Amino acid sequence: MPADYEKMAEHCLGHKKISDKVLDQFLMHFIARKEGMDRKMNAYTLKYQHIIRKMPKEFFPTAMGECIMGKTLMPDGLIHKYLDHIQLRSLEKTEREFLEFQAENPWRYCFACIAGREAKNFFILRDAFGGDEFLLFSPGVEAFWTEGRRQGDRSLS
Fold it and tell me: How crowded is residue 73: how many other Cβ atoms within 10 Å of its Cβ?
């Protein structure tokens, strides 16, 4: 049976809405505060200002967010420590279920390369170390892929 990429994209975009609200706007800041990560990151910002100044403006805040969420949602991550916290228990039912799902399905981090493009925003990625292949929905990778094609990098074809 052929994949219904349009339906999968719709699902992913719906998932992104709750992810933006619960993870990006709430959980990341909650965990950073509770674990003192915000103070540590501010100290690193000051210590390495001479390097950070040379990076694109959005790089360091994005990297800090990835670090916090990685520590939170990796296997045995911090999510388990706070799942019963009153602030998390007071979330809406769908938001709470979303966090429980994240706790039961830890995030996977890997170094991967594009092995193929299945449809717009859908790519087969190959884990550079383990060799596993998996399907990824990513408008960001689509933009990267499109720009590479525009610049003539045929290795992304």
Answer: 21
